[in-house]
Amino acid sequence: MNKFFNFSAGPAALPSQVLEKISSDFACASKTKNASVVEISHRSVEFIELAERAERTLTELLSIPKNYKILFLQGGATQQFSMVPINLLGNKKSSNYVNTGRWSIKAIKEAKRYCNVNICTDSGVNGFVDIEDFCNWKIDEKAAYLHYTPNETIDGLEFDYIPELDMPIVADMSSCILSRPIDVSKFGIIYAGAQKNIGVAGLTIVIIRDDLIGNAIKNQPIMFDYLSQSENNSMYNTPCTFAWYVAALVFEWLKDLGGLEEILKVNKIKADMLYKTIDESDFYLNNVVERYRSNMNVVFSLADKNLDKRFIDTAKENGLLAIKGHKIIGGMRASIYNSMTIEGVTALINFMQEFEKIKT
Ligand SMILES: *Cc1c(COP(=O)(O)O)cnc(C)c1O
Q1: Spacing, Cα 31 to ligand 1 middle (Å)
Q2: Which of 8, 172, 197, 328 to mutate to test the pocket of ligand 1 (most atoms within 8 A of CB)?
């Protein structure tokens, strides 16, 4: 096996160009006996320059308006499940949550520790394969905000629009950020763990409208207050410098590719190819309503479950890694984030068609 493609859902594959750059940066530091990026102060001129460059490139990629702050935090997307209610509730007693899958459920569970959660729509009733029309959602108008998950990484369900209401919209974009252009001005907060489409684990990007900073409920840990993080430029304590450095490289890689319009074209091609293969066969199955199928995480099952293990093992022997579905729902999942090439998806499709022929 000389060539392999990694379909891991997260931590996910990095673009090969970024891996090569990391490797050469460290080799160069070692050769010149200079300190590498992980061996210098986060307050050094070199690191601050890198941090500012990362912020500038991300601002450019997403056209982030001036009244938004970008935070480079730790604690994963999961820590945002707590930080969002802690910082946005103010004197309100409730929040709206959209339930479209397993990550929504986790966010809801955490929010319930702080307030009354109004589940304004629940895809659990259809087995997480469809999203109720927005006009039928039961919104609590007095709630502090609405939280939703634009792309459900485990269930393979993705929104094709942004819900708009007269309250801050909060989005967990962990598995779809930077996969397409978005209108940041429609959001109160966008957050994302870095290990899917931004870089390596340890970093969480938070893009927050500045009027939402500074309202945290009293006596919470200082690390959970957007104000302390923002006032200190995400350096209240030592940030995850390595993950920050990798993010900067991924942002530059995307910019060099032509930005988000260009990556969206590639992402569309990859997803369309894969869903077409699934739909044209009775051997593979995906039940998500076409409109809401994820462009990032393509889930599918085999008509004969008994073949699952054989499929996964044979795929691996053929250089197609991490194709196994999440343990909660089983089956298969091909995560095709920005770093996955059309070549990789083509290899998967060829394998799927070959496997089907042998088994039927
Ligand atoms: C992976 C993922 C998370 C969890 O991220 P952590 O960084 O592990 O906390 C949350 N939400 C979504 C949508 C995810 O894909």
Answers
A1: 37
A2: 172
Q: How far is Cα of residue 338 from the mean position of the Cα atoms in its chain?
A: 11
Question: CB of 253 within 8 A of CB of 18?
Answer: yes
- CA atoms of 216 and 230, how far apart (whole Å): 13
> Residue of the nearest CA to atom 7 in ligand 1?
76
d(CA 161, CA 17): 32
Rg (CA), the chain: 21
Active site residues: 103, 172, 196
Residue 78 Cα to ligand 1 middle (Å) = 6
Whether this model's pTM surpasses 0.85: yes
Ligand 1 centroid to Cα of residue 30, in Å, is 34
SS3 298: strand
Q: Do residues 157 and 128 make contact, with C-beta atoms less than 8 angstroms apart? A: yes
∠ CA 18-22-26, rounded to 5°: 170
Q: Name the pLDDT band for 359 (thresholds 50, 70, 90).
A: confident
pLDDT of residue 247: 98
Residue identifier of the C-alpha nearest atom 13 of ligand 1: 174
d(CA 44, CA 307): 55
Q: What percent of the chain has pLDDT over 90?
A: 98
Backbone angles phi, psi at 92, to 5 degrees: -85, 160
Pocket of ligand 1 (CB under 6 A): 10, 76-78, 103, 149, 153, 172, 174-175, 193, 196
Ligand 1 centre and the CA of 106: distance in Å? 10
pLDDT of residue 2: 62
For residue 204, the ligand 1 atom closest to its alpha carbon is: 7
Closest by Cα among 23, 287, 314 to 130: 287
State pLDDT tens for residues 90-124: 999 999 999 999 999 999 999 999 999 999 999 99
Q: Which residues contact 204 (CB under 8 A, 6 or more apart)?
A: 72, 73, 74, 75, 76, 77, 79, 80, 191, 192, 193, 194
Are the C-beta atoms of 226 and 189 separated by less than 8 Å?
Answer: no
Rounded CA separation 214/216 (Å): 6
